[in-house]
Amino acid sequence: MVKLSLKEIRFIENYLIKNEVKYWDVRLELLDHIINSVEEKMTNKGLSFNAALQEVHQGFGNNLKTYGIYNHKLMKSGLYADKKGFEKFTKQKQKELGRKYRNQAIKTFKNNMLNYKFIVEYLAFSGLVLTVFQYFPKITVFSGLLILMLPTFYGFYHTFEEKALKKSLSFNMVGTFSILYWSIYNLGLQSLTFFYEKTEPKPYEFFVIMLVIMYPFLRSSMNLYLKILKENKALYKLKLS
Amino acid sequence: MSNSKLYKGSLTTIILKLLNESDKMYGYEITQKVKELTKGELKITEGALYPALHKLEADGLLDVEVKKVDNRLRKYYKITENGEKESSHQLSELASYIATMQALVNPKLNLE
């Protein structure tokens, strides 16, 4: 059985990076498949490395062209593979990851709502918010926005702490859930400034109710975020080992 | 995939059936297994296999395990409990489809 050299493996990985398979957690599956496939074609069909790689490109749906444009430069005459198939692979993976996390978030939400510890936490949070609101309505409403933004700040912190997470599709996807909640809330606050500019007192009650309703969803997405963060860190550690 | 129009609808059934019969498999292994079982008649392309695997994973029918092999990461797919149920459901649907088609295209072979 032909085994690819480290130089050839690096060539494939660099090719993937240059062709916008920028997320390492997407690349790992592609890289393993391409190496296996190229090695098999070189062994059983007696193909050269380049010819075997071209066949694999076609299998993924990349088109082979006799010329190419890379970084706005016309390449020298030769056979080039475009990135159509890999782009489709990444987009499709992104779509399915979004669906997977949505399903998991719903499942986590249902589990939380049946967990007595969470029910106690939820009642305590709601009680605290409603009590503080009686005395400081404006502060409570704007603090609500900060509470909803906490997972996003947490996400930023992790991205800076570990650069590997920045280039991970699963980590990027799971982070978008937390952005959704505070974006809706913030949109409401913006509308309040716009539509109720001259109205006093402003209908802050609406936001407190919104915050209390959003809290279980926020906690579910936070649970999911922490789960994916843990999985991602373990996977990256395995990659580097 | 050869005869792609006929095989396309059965791809998830094929994947679930193979994973039901083994502990775990990786993408490339699935393509080779299908090629081997069908004596090269059916070739699953990478462009068709991975979207199907990712969809089954998102539906909770497959689970994923990553291991380090030959100094690189390999993603293995395993069937879940729901996947096993779905596999037997899809297989019985396929069997009934084949029987119906047989009755249509070759009525003489139908014993009833």
Structure description:
The complex is a heterodimer of chains A (241) and B (112). By secondary structure, chain A is mainly alpha-helical. Chain A is built from nine helices and four strands, in the order H-H-H-E-E-E-E-H-H-H-H-H-H. Chain A has helices spanning 6-18, 24-44, 49-59, 84-113, 116-135, 137-161, 163-166, 169-195, 205-240, and strands at 64-65, 69-70, 73-74, 80-81. Chain A has a two-stranded antiparallel sheet with strand order 1-4. Chain A has a two-stranded antiparallel ribbon with strand order 2-3. The longest helix of chain A is centred in the C-terminal third of the chain and has 36 residues, at 205-240. Chain A is elongated, with a radius of gyration of 25 Å. Chain A starts with 5 loop residues before the first helix and ends with a helix. By secondary structure, chain B is of the alpha+beta class. Chain B has five helices and three strands; from the N terminus they run H-H-E-H-H-E-E-H. Chain B has helices at 4-8, 11-21, 27-37, 46-58, 81-105; strands at residues 25-26, 62-69, 72-79. Chain B has a three-stranded antiparallel beta sheet with strand order 1-3-2. In chain B, a hairpin with a 2-residue loop joins strand 2 (62-69) and strand 3 (72-79). Chain B is globular. The N and C termini of chain B lie far apart (34 Å). The relative contact order of chain B is 0.15. Chain A binds chain B through residues 9, 28-29, 31-33, 35-37, 40, 56, 59-61, 85, 88-89, 92-93, 96-97, 99-100, 103, 235, 238-239, 241, and chain B through 26-28, 32, 45-47, 50-51, 54-55, 57-60, 66, 68-69, 72-75.
